[in-house]
């Protein structure tokens, strides 16, 4: 019984994990990039609506899947139960070497760079601060999920309040007339077609909306998980959609499109239009927001590595829980060590995020397809499960849009996409090593 998680996460805490995993640096970084691809207000707002709709379809789908298998590991468990060990392992593998650690490395650099706006630091000192943040939050999450969950709740509540203030400023003092119906296409600086540009813009919205699935990773630690996990997913993504649509509307009310597309800190620039110290306020907001997201990512993903190790497909130490705090300490520590290595030797954000989203979106689509497998296997005879609204149209929309983003990224950003595929190839070799050599 020593390897049993404590069930101590409530609906509120899990909802805050779903929200906090989504609202991080993305909403403060990607609107400018999206405006460069889609230089018309109507298209900018449309891509955020479409991105939110895709995420809502995903949340509705994953809510039912999670109610079938409320276990530690989330997507890893779903893929293993539906398609077998190899796809599940590859998901966990890419989470460790690309998706989660790559996001953590990028987020920690964003945290340090915005902190340097408040407290001037050299580039070298920013790296030290970024590493220190990873180390501190790693220790916090090893000491217990309750502490990590409390941390997530506090910081998520704070950043939602901050976004509300930005929206309020846009409502009260925004002077621009936002032409939501302006959907003419006159091209962009990259000379891309509308379809290609829209697909690349969806990378930004996917990165910003993504993260809510982390709530499924800690399902084994949730009280009454079969009911609570679906509710947390739906509540979480609904709040995120509302927050993103309103804050983008506020950006457009405060900044003209040309200034928005040229901005490197769109939130600070938007608030500064009517508030002289707004840039400092937003920098502080982003510091809190990113720090909270880092803490959540460190908390949730190691449950995937735990599940892999528990199946004998990864280092057996990853399946060991701390004797006192009942947290997967070795999985958490190894993840953070790899993150620090990426942080020290990669030091990029934009390209990293592109292939992170490429791999992540591919597995999102594949995981959504497990719903059809589970319904066929279980014939809906399990009592108390959540039923996906609009089935089968809802999951099919999500799968189709995920495929579009993956294919468009492969065409328009082949370097980042191929890099992600190479990691998958290495993962296949690692899987068979553990499967055939270590396990036997």
Overall description:
- This protein has one domain: Amino acid/polyamine transporter I.
- The longest helix is centred in the N-terminal third of the chain and has 34 residues, at 85-118.
- Helix 5 runs antiparallel to helix 14.
- The protein is mostly helical.
- The chain is globular.
- The relative contact order is 0.21.
- It is built from 18 helices and no strands.
The structure class reads mainly alpha
CATH fold naming: Amino acid/polyamine transporter I
Overall number of structural domains: 1
CATH architecture: Up-down Bundle
Overall average pLDDT: 83
User: How does the overall form come out from the CA principal axes?
Assistant: globular
Main β sheet profile = none
Share of β-strand residues: under 5%
Put simply, the count of helices is 18
- N- to C-terminal separation? 25 Å
Unreliable segments of 5+ consecutive residues: none
Observed structural traits:
single chain; 440 residues; mainly alpha; Amino acid/polyamine transporter I; 18 helices; 0% strand
């Amino acid at each position: 019984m020593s390897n049993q998680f404590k069930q101590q996460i409530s609906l509120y805490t899990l909802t805050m994990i779903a929200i906090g995993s989504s609202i991080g640096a993305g909403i403060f970084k990607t609107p400018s990039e999206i405006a460069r691809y889609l230089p018309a207000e109507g298209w900018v707002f449309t891509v955020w609506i479409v991105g939110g709709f895709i995420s809502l379809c995903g949340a509705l789908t994953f809510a039912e899947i999670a109610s079938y298998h409320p276990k530690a590991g989330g997507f890893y468990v779903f893929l293993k139960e539906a398609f077998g060990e190899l796809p599940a392992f590859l998901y966990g593998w890419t989470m460790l070497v690309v998706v989660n650690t790559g996001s953590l490395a990028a987020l920690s650099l964003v945290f340090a760079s915005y902190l340097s706006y408040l407290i001037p630091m050299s580039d070298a000192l920013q790296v030290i601060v970024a590493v220190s943040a990873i180390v501190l939050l790693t220790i916090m999450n090893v000491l217990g999920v309750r502490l990590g969950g409390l941390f997530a709740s506090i910081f998520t509540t704070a950043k939602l309040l901050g976004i509300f203030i930005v929206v309020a400023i846009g409502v009260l003092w925004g002077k621009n007339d936002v032409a939501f119906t302006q959907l003419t296409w006159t091209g962009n600086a990259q000379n891309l077609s509308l379809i290609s540009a829209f697909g690349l813009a969806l990378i930004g919205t996917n990165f910003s909306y993504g993260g809510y699935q982390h709530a499924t990773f800690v399902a084994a630690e949730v009280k009454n998980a079969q009911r609570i996990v679906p509710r947390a997913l739906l509540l979480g993504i609904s709040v995120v959609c509302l927050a993103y649509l309103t804050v983008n509307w506020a950006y457009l009310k405060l900044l003209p499109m040309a200034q928005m597309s040229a901005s490197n800190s769109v939130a600070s620039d938007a608030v500064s239009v009517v508030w002289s110290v707004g840039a400092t306020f937003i920098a502080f907001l982003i510091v809190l927001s990113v720090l909270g997201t880092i803490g959540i990512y460190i908390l949730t993903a190691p449950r995937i590595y735990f599940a892999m190790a528990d199946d004998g497909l990864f280092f057996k130490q990853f399946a060991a829980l701390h004797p006192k705090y009942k947290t997967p300490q070795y999985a958490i520590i190894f993840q953070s060590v790899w993150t620090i290595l990426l942080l020290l030797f990669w030091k990029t954000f934009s390209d990293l995020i592109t292939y992170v989203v490429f791999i992540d979106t591919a597995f999102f689509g594949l995981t959504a397809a497990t719903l059809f497998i589970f319904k066929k296997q279980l014939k809906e005879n399990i009592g108390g499960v959540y039923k996906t609204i609009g089935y089968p149209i809802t999951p099919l929309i999500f799968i189709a849009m995920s495929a579009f983003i993956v294919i468009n990224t492969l065409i328009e950003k082949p370097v980042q996409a191929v890099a992600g595929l190479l990691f998958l190839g290495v993962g296949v070799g690692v899987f068979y090593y553990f499967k055939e050599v270590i396990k036997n």
